[in-house]
Amino acid sequence: MAIGCAIAMVSQSNPLYSAISLIGVFISLASIYVTLAAPFIAAVQVIVYAGAIMVLVIFVIMLLNVEHSEPRRKRLKFLVPMAIGMAAILLAETVFILHSVQTTENRLPGNISDVGLTHSIGEGLFTRYLLPFELTSVLLLMAIVGAMSLARRTSTLSATARVVPGAQVLAMDIANPSGVQDLRPVETETTEEAAHLLGVDFQSDRSKQA
Amino acid sequence: MAWDNQYIHALVLIIAITVAFLTIMLLVAATVLAERRVLALIQGRLGPNRVGFGGVLQPFADFIKTMMKEDLVPDQSTRFVFLLAPMIAVITAIMAIIVYPFGPTITLPFLGTFPLRIAQFDVALLYVLGVTSVGVYGIALAGWSSNNKYSLMGGLRSSAQMISYELALGLSLIGVILLCGTLDIYRIVEQQSGWYGLHWNIIYQPLGFILYLIAAIAETNRVPFDLPEAETELVAGFHTEYSSIKFLLFFNAEYINMITVSMLATTLFLGGWNGPGVAQFPLLGVFYFFAKIVFFLFLYIWLRGTLPRFRFDQLMDFGWKFLLPAAILNIVLTATFLYLFT
Predict the structure, then answer these.
(1) Domain enclosing residue A194, as ranges
(2) Residue B45 belongs to a domain
(3) Chain B residues bordering chain A (beta-carbon distance below 8 Å)
(4) pLDDT per residue over A160-210, tens digit each?
(5) Which of B47, B65, B270, B282 is the most exposed place for a label (fewest CB within 10 A)?
(6) Which residues lie below 8 Å from residue B89, measured CB to CB, with a gap of 6+?
């Protein structure tokens, strides 16, 4: 079921279906954890991934409502052989792990049913593995800060640029950012002013439309 | 005893699940009727009192009537998701029931002893939270797949609301977890027995209890937090396009959610099946358990009859700027007291 959901997730064209399939993957993964005697990890998996993160993803998909996305141009064609190579490495690793598990003798510490319980996980996390645990949280903090800074840096316009909504459309359509050397932010109060700065005959454009 | 035999064990489990399911369904019917009668009482009306004695058969009559209706699927809807959504809603609602102990371990003549619960495992509390969090999808997907702008608004509102209040809900329970030192609901109930009710967690966690109650009402989309289905603005919100049995599933899911949330409040804060005389007559515990649930259900209906609805920005402000900091404060206070006095 996990594999079926995973294939469905990659192959679906509708992003919402992909998201639903991903939820299926997470829930099947949680059931695998349960069969491996790790109920705590399973519950956390469902709460964090299926319950919190995917709700946000679906929320965003619903808000944007991208239903009919046109087939994308093959922009990143050079990545295809790389992906195949990566998949081959991953497959080799899986085979190696399966092989080594079968050849080495079983040497799990202590009682096997104890490992997945809340108590032992908490104890391990806050004593023996405290440093990796804290480092992971720092990593997450870095991710948040990075996302914030990326979101702040929007287009070629600086954050202080005051552009009326109509003028922004003008700038994107007509000024052609890739063709123009001088990419100064446009700072105007009105659409007419922006049109004048960009060297566009705004009035005649509007009369043509009308 | 022969309970070690796995087939007999499985049979007992199936019987237990069936009994629990039927009990919950009857409780849903009773709650629907009670809601209509009590609301009528609050608003100075009579309410449904004709079908059966005092109207007891009204929910069943309504059930049959709704079943007979035509099952519509909107032309432009996303069919698969449209069918999937009510199932997710009702299945996740029912799944949470299995961890609650309905009573203490009882001894029956000729049958031996068995506990009045379906499953006991280490992370029962996390399981409940996880199942509840998956339940959001039922409403969100229903709103999206109906291809109706009111439904979409309802779905969006509900996902935003449930994400915001789930945090406060989870954090308000951490105080109890700190006190009891376990996530196992059965053990939490057992720890609250004795001392004439002075061991109930509500006495040590009054702030946590109030926060949980508020967050739980928001989590079940009930008045005054019923913005996803605010009928005066959104027709019926996320289930506008649903008819017949699919509407019934949503309707059931809402009431089952009310019941499970009440069960959680009962087990975590009000001592579950504990009460006077339980030590001598264990079956009394079942009565106490359901009595406490009925109290919470009455509270729900009472609030619905007396409170107006929040505005959406008020709802968000309340969730993030009051409920969440208060829940964190509760955790800090509990941890400090535990550190100082134990």
Answers:
(1) 165-209
(2) no
(3) 78, 81, 84, 121-123, 126-127, 129-134, 136-137, 140-141, 143-144, 152, 155-156, 159-160, 162-163, 166, 183
(4) 444 544 444 444 444 455 554 455 555 566 666 666 666 665 555 555 554
(5) B65
(6) B135, B138, B139, B142, B249, B250, B253
